[in-house]
């Protein structure tokens, strides 16, 4: 089922920047698909949630909401690869949480044990710019099943409904907030550790560098200014240039 022709009516420039959900890797992704790789990396057999646990979490989080339109907030890779069929996308600002580069990835997505990567998570305080995708009521059950297989594959996030501002008024969005008790969430990372991970992390889903660049490219398209991320990218580029020079013969 293709996206409706007017899905990008608020932001036509995003039409060519968001992957067709039907072709996304995550559309048909199943958690067990990566079990073998996790065993090779020495992860325990219970590295991920069971299907029953994940589905129970989804139904608890969405209790009383399955029969209405759902807004999903995207602040990282969901911005360019949501894997969700949506009817509308809007620029949105979540109130009360900000974007932090706190997901320290050694699991193999955009990092590995030998080259850890870093990605974004929502942390308390401040605000966070991103986009919100509206999932029509009739498809919420199916689309959130896909979303949970991706975002709630293991202990990392807490699904939460958060207030968000858009040009058309305030909405309530489903966001995935960093769980400070999770192994992958590192609120104690130094700036140097974040820069190094963003510069060198690489896994099956690509590099942490491309992840950071994609976020900034989408901010440019949406006319979002994020001095913090722009400063981080400048530091990461300097780190890559410096280390490249050190490795030259």
Automatic annotation (TrEMBL):
* Example of a GO MF term: glutathione specific gamma-glutamylcyclotransferase activity
Enzyme class comes to lyase
Concerning Pfam families, the annotation shows: ChaC
One GO CC term of this entry?
Answer: cytoplasm
Q: Which UniProt keywords apply?
A: Lyase
> What is the E.C. number?
4.3.2.7
Q: What name has this protein been given in UniProt?
A: glutathione-specific gamma-glutamylcyclotransferase
